């Protein structure tokens, strides 16, 4: 997922020039601990600039063309935005521990950090920086080697986020939900979080993004996850952004021996959504299940780009992505499996399935395999199709009206990825979200 | 009294090819009719034309369900009006739980007829009763519709749907195909429980065997897209002896 070399003489786009300006201004301010990291990241970004369609990893989501201007970095939120955040609707039925961010700022009054389970530590990124959490300092930006301009921008500009540590052997049953609510004004949010699940520990992490404003705003979010030996994390990410929002998110995870990652991303709205995942399977016997679902309408565009790096033996990865595309929406699935020398007995499977509900909708699927070990099982596939007319007839022949028959079959199509969510209340809430989204025009 | 099903000089085609050639059939409430005929005589086509499968087009004539013109109704409206087709090959519907499917079907029909919806507990109770009659494991009904069911299990599931939905007119398309003798008895028993003075049943079958268990009042022989002979239940036995050859040549 490298970037094509660019000609040094290229004129910066307006957005790139603005980013450089903002970066120069922020250098004097900000937490000193991260200054070096930020500078290195911005230098790396400057070498390539915003990625465009000639960069293989961004082939179908041309950020250089899409990002015409840079919205100002978020200012502290107004009261109205906080009020709105109080009603943040995503997964209200789940008894999660909520950590709320409004307009890019941590909102302690809306968050529930009281009575943390023994062995669990949750603090905002700024608090972690102020307290000088040394462990967090060394991990940020170092969970995996990621050579990507959007992630580099996140590192250069990271604003607020959360640092979570689950102590060795601790099992946290109550899901931890990071709620990111956009402010009312056009703005750019750089959100950054780090989650460390120590040896044998277990947790559920939900990240939900929502925005009600019709204004254009930009989210650049990144989450880094360290799974130590035998650790287990179920992560769910729900993007329900405003109609004009652009959301770029990077997920970096490292898995030690026997670690378990179960990841599910649900895209329910936003003009442009890009979710890129860099999964580093470093320990033998680790297992990563990566799933995603897009339910898109209008001109929405969602891009799931997945990089699975198998560097240890007997590890498994299973990827399943489903898209339901209406109107002239577009879904992109790019998945690359790399099996490094010595990663014998790797079992890696990847599948992308798309349901087209309209003739104007479009799906682009690009799987890649790169294998340097000789005793492995790898498979990939993709399908694109419409609902089965025979099934619609069968349901209608039992008295179910056409629209209802189509909804039932579409929900069933998406259901396969939701059914795999382990936490039951989360699973039910996700099904309800999907059902509601499919039934509203 | 208006006939339950009245088919008059019906002509129908699929992809421009005429399959039904002037079909006449009248089924009154309380009657069980058997339609027998060789393969390719249009028996399944009749069932699809009546239920409104896309691609099947009526070009001439009429089919009336309790006096209402079927061609003016959508597929789901026909079902709500009381038409039920038990499929020869019931479809598997991955991801849709059987109970969800049954509830959606029953309540959509009730809603369309202006009746009250059935509550979930009542529904589960009723399905349990029916499953017992049809010797079906409730565990099966927790699975997605027909997924992983054997041929016999699918036919039992079709019969269960039919018994739950209580249609006015049941059309059983080759319900005996793929059934072993035990399943045949169980399914026939279910169908016989549906026999009533208010209901009509049309059994489409290739073989006489099913009619040992579901005794028809009237037997028709269909050939080349229309009915060529009508008689009592003894006609089925005669066909078993003589085969369909003479009807095929007659039609030609």
Provide keyphrases for this structure.
heterodimer; A: 441 residues; alpha/beta; 10-stranded mixed β-sheet; 19 strands; 23% helix; 37% strand; globular; B: 252 residues; Rossmann fold; 6-stranded mixed β-sheet; 9 helices; 37% helix
Task: Provide structural commentary.
The complex is a heterodimer of chains A (441) and B (252). Chain A is α/β, with parallel strands linked by helices. Chain A is built from ten helices and 19 strands. Chain A has helices at residues 14-28, 35-48, 63-66, 79-86, 125-130, 134-139, 149-157, 389-396, 402-418, 424-439, and strands at residues 97-102, 105-106, 120-124, 162-166, 176-181, 188-197, 202-210, 218-227, 232-240, 246-255, 260-269, 272-281, 287-296, 301-310, 316-325, 330-339, 347-356, 362-371, 377-385. In chain A, helix 1 packs antiparallel against helix 2 (35-48), helix 2 packs antiparallel against helix 7 and helix 9 runs antiparallel to helix 10 (424-439). Chain B is α/β, with parallel strands linked by helices and 252 residues long. Chain B has one domain (5-251): Rossmann fold. Helix content of chain B is 37%, strand content 26%. The longest helix of chain B is centred in the middle third of the chain and has 15 residues, at 98-112. The model of chain B has no long low-confidence stretch (mean pLDDT 93). At the A-B interface, helix 8 and helix 9 of A face helix 2 and helix 3 of B.
């Amino acid at each position: 997922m490298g970037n094509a070399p660019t000609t040094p003489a290229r004129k910066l786009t307006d957005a790139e020039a603005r980013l450089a300006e903002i970066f120069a201004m922020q250098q004097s301010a900000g937490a000193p601990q991260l200054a070096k990291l930020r500078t290195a990241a911005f230098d790396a970004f400057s070498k390539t600039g915003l990625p465009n369609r000639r960069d293989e990893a961004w082939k179908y989501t041309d950020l250089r063309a899409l990002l015409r201007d840079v919205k100002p970095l978020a200012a502290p939120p107004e009261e109205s935005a906080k009020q709105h955040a109080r009603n943040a609707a995503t997964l209200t039925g789940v008894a999660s521990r909520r950590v709320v961010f409004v307009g890019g700022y941590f909102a302690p009054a809306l968050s529930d950090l009281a009575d943390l389970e023994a062995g669990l530590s949750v603090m905002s990124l700024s608090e972690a920086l102020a307290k000088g959490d040394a462990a967090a300092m060394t991990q940020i930006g170092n969970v995996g080697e990621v050579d990507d301009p959007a992630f580099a921008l996140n590192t250069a500009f990271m604003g607020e986020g959360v640092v979570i540590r689950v102590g060795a052997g601790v099992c946290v049953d109550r899901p931890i939900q990071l709620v990111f609510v956009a402010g009312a004004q056009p703005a750019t949010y750089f959100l950054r979080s780090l989650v460390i699940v120590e040896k044998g520990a277990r947790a559920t992490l939900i990240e939900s993004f929502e925005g009600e404003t019709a204004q254009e705003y930009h989210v650049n979010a990144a989450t880094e996850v360290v799974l130590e030996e035998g650790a287990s994390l179920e992560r769910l990410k729900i993007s329900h952004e405003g109609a004009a929002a652009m959301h770029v998110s990077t997920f970096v995870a490292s898995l030690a021996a026997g670690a378990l990652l179960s990841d599910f991303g649900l895209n329910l709205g936003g003009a442009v959504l890009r979710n890129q995942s860099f999964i580093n399977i470093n320990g033998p016997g680790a297992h990563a299940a990566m799933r995603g679902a897009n339910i898109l309408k209008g001109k929405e565009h969602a891009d799931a780009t997945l990089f699975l790096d198998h560097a240890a033996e007997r590890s498994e990865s299973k990827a399943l992505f489903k898209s339901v595309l209406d109107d002239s929406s577009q879904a992109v699935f790019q998945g690359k499996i790399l099996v490094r020398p010595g990663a014998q007995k790797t079992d890696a499977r990847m599948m992308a399935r798309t349901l087209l509900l309209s003739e104007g909708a479009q799906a682009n699927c690009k799987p890649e395999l790169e294998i340097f070990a000789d005793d492995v099982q790898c498979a990939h596939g993709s399908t694109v199709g419409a609902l089965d007319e025979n099934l619609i007839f069968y349901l209608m022949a039992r008295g179910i009206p056409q629209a209802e028959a189509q909804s039932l079959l579409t929900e069933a199509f998406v259901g396969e990825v939701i059914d795999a969510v382990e936490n039951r209340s989360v699973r039910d809430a996700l099904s309800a979200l999907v059902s509601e989204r499919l039934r509203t025009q | 009294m208006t006939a339950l099903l009245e088919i008059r000089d019906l002509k129908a085609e699929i992809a421009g090819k005429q399959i039904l050639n002037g079909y006449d059939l009248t089924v009154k409430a309380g009657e069980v009719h058997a339609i027998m005929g060789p393969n390719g005589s249009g028996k399944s086509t009749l069932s699809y034309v009546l239920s409104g499968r896309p691609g099947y087009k009526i070009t001439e004539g009429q089919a009336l369900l309790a006096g209402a013109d079927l061609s003016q109704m959508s597929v789901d409206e026909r079902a709500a009006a009381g038409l039920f087709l038990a499929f020869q090959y019931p479809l598997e519907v991955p991801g849709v739980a059987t109970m969800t499917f049954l509830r959606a079907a029953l309540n959509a029909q009730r809603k369309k007829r202006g009746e009250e919806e059935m509550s979930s507990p009542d529904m589960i109770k009723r399905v349990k009763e029916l499953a017992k009659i049809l010797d079906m494991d409730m565990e099966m009904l927790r699975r997605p519709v027909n997924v992983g069911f054997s041929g016999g299990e699918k036919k039992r599931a079709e019969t269960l749907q039919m018994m739950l939905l209580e249609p006015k007119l049941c059309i059983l398309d080759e319900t005996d195909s793929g059934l072993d003798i035990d399943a045949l008895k169980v399914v026939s028993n279910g169908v016989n429980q549906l026999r009533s003075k208010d209901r009509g049943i049309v059994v489409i079958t290739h073989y006489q065997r099913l009619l040992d268990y579901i005794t028809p009042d009237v037997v028709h022989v269909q050939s080349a897209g229309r009915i060529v002979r009508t008689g009592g239940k003894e006609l089925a036995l005669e066909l078993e002896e003589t085969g369909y050859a003479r009807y095929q040549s007659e039609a030609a």
